[in-house]
Amino acid sequence: MSEWHVVWVPDPGRWGTLPEAGGLGVEDLPAAVERIGLMPGDPVFIAPDFTIDSDLLEFVLSKHFRFLARETKRNYATDIRILLTFLSSRGIDWRRASEQDLLNYRTWRCDAPQNPERISGSKWNREAAAFTRLFKWARVSPRPVDASRREDRAADSVSARVSWLTPRTWSLWSDVGLRGHGRDGVPTWGWDARTEARNTSFVQFTLSSGLRRQEGGSLLTFELPAQRLQHGRFQHGQLAGAVTRSKNGRTFYTSLDALGQVETYVQSERAWAVKRAQQMGRYERVAQMRLVTKVTRGRAPRVFWVDRDGVEGHQYLTHLGWRERQLLFIEGPEGPEPAWLWLTEQGLPMLPDRWNTVFTTANLRCEEALLTPAEREVGRNLRAAEVRGRTPYATPHSTRHSFALYMLIVLNQLMEARFGLTAADRRDFAMLFGDPWWLVKTLLGHADVETTKRHYLAPVAHLQLESILATAEADGPDREVENIDGVFARLAKESAGIQDIDVIVDRLPVAGR
């Protein structure tokens, strides 16, 4: 036996059935874990002999690991676990691993034909960063791998997670996957629509704003955009720095249509879930509750609250991370209710990573409706390209990718087709306001425009968008949507990775079109 395991510290109130007092040598397991210094979401490494590795526990508690984002902790711990198992299977203690040991591991992970699950260069670079952090903390010398060394990084590192769906393909995916429509464009018999409004409004909101899963998934009700742009169909809001990857707050924009769907969810499904939870006394059993008493406005808004013990507290809104936000409640018409925007059917905050399950379930529904039973029996990764092309597939991050692609095309159209800018005019416009790449970079919250080009839009950078847009008809406002669809259709045919209806299903009915 050489298999290592990782267990994760649960969030408060989500420990499930606990062992009897004294069963594991402790009277109160959550309290004992807290005394050690472990936080919710922290990993605990279990050796093959089912003992806890004390050195790895110290690593998790150290400054080298503690201040990483929760998702980064999960990714790094998963990567380290696989390395530990590899070394253990060869009788090598991880503290004594050599450069040759890591070279052998890299060869197996990336290049060995015998490995049926080889990884990409981008994935290896992430693993190398995790291992570097561990060996640097352990002061292993010489360091077996170092992500700062060029030879330890993959030369073929290209982002493979880019996933684009055109606007009409998102409509198809939402109708089939989230609204339960069949091939005929109407809801199937027996469709359960209990969370339909929540799921569809979240997708439209993130598609319209380009927010990441955690950014959009941890919004509070009083953070919804309320300021309308002058003469526009968009509203803008402020994103808290604590929920972003860069830890820097930024302004985001969303369409009135998407915001209207969110408000409909708040007044219908969400209101019902809150009322049901209040009737069943769920909020009275919440272990930690901070009842918001005031939210200041201005450039640096602050949230004031009082907890169950009557202790008052406050914090700048931009400094509230997603874990603290779950504790915030506001006084509603029938009593306290969560300030968290997206709620489960039980009326409790829906954690950001739970959206993965929503998207996975929607993908399976699309396969059920659009593929034959024989085609569904084959796993997605093993299906022929023709079969994969007959059903849309999306992840929470696909909304961000698709937003970026859509904005690039629209901005190019505005600068050329609508404004009729010459090459010289375009240079002047770019000097004053920035080119479309720079504007999309700003909307996405990237620090460097090259990140936008490299990770999101590089596969279509070789296309001459100017010539494509020049051939698109633009003979009036009534043709605007059709023209955009035509541009996307051409891009889907000439570029890899863009999912479009014409490629997926021929003349499949789409509700509302």
Please explain how this structure is put together.
The protein has 513 residues and is an alpha+beta fold. It folds into three domains: 5-152, no CATH class; 219-348, no CATH class; 356-506, no CATH class. 45% of the residues lie in helices and 10% in strands. It is built from 21 helices and twelve strands. The chain has helices spanning 29-36, 54-61, 63-66, 70-89, 99-110, 121-138, 167-178, 196-209, 213-217, 256-279, 322-325, 355-370, 373-377, 385-388, 396-418, 423-433, 436-444, 449-457, 465-471, 480-494, 501-504; strands at 5-8, 43-46, 164-165, 227-228, 234-239, 250-255, 290-295, 302-307, 312-316, 328-332, 335-338, 498-499. Strands 9-8-7-10-11 form a five-stranded mixed β-sheet, with no helix packed on it. A hairpin with a 5-residue loop joins strand 4 (227-228) and strand 5 (234-239). Helix 8 packs antiparallel against helix 10 (256-279), helix 8 (196-209) crosses helix 15 (396-418) and helix 15 runs antiparallel to helix 17. The protein is globular, with a radius of gyration of 25 Å. The chain starts with a strand and ends in a 9-residue tail after the last helix. Residues 462-482 and 509-513 have low confidence and may be disordered.
